[in-house]
Design brief:
By secondary structure, this protein is of the alpha/beta class. About 25% of the residues lie in helices and about 30% in strands. It has helices at about 5-15, 30-35, 70-75, 85-90, 135-145; strands at about 20, 45-50, 55-60, 65, 80, 110-115, 120-125, 130-135, 150, 155.
């Protein structure tokens, strides 16, 4: 697998140029950073959270952990992590644990942690465990232009 069709079509529709970066297969964003030699600050990790029947895609650097209470305050409701089954249903063309940090193309609201905004370029999962999408900061901003922004992460 490489870039998922959903993500590839989305980037094409938005006329966003990107590079594909292949790396040895990994099972976590922090391991992806190590395998690819890219700082975890520049790898956008996607975490699916829920409030009742609604889902939100939270995007933060791979080098940080999500703070659910802070995210809940930002969003204005209590959030919990989505289950593996829910994530599998939302991202049918992705490998489990390789969710791209591009929720709009999957019909999800998005919230972006402010700590990723300082990066000149961003890498996100392509939908499998061996492919990253490389975007400039401006391209990433176009992918998340309708997203809420705030602080909801802590250091490793």
């Amino acid at each position: 697998m490489t870039v998922t069709p959903t993500l590839e079509n989305y980037l094409e529709r938005k006329n966003i140029d990107y590079d594909v970066v292949l790396h040895e297969p990994t099972l976590s964003s922090s391991r992806t950073a190590q395998a690819s030699g890219i700082s975890g600050k520049r790898i956008a990790k996607a975490v699916v959270v829920r409030d009742g029947d609604s889902f939100v895609l939270a995007i933060l650097p791979a080098s940080r952990h999500i703070d659910l209470p802070d995210l809940g305050k930002l969003l204005g409701f209590d959030v919990t992590l989505a289950t593996e089954q829910e994530v599998r249903q939302l991202f049918e063309d992705c490998a489990l644990g390789a969710v791209p940090a591009a929720g709009e193309c999957y019909g999800l609201d998005v919230v972006v942690d402010d700590s990723i905004e300082a990066q000149p370029d961003i890498y996100l999962e392509g939908g499998d465990h061996a492919t990253l999408i490389h975007l400039t900061h401006a391209q990433f901003a176009r992918c998340t232009e309708g997203a809420r922004h705030g602080r909801f992460s802590t250091h490793d």
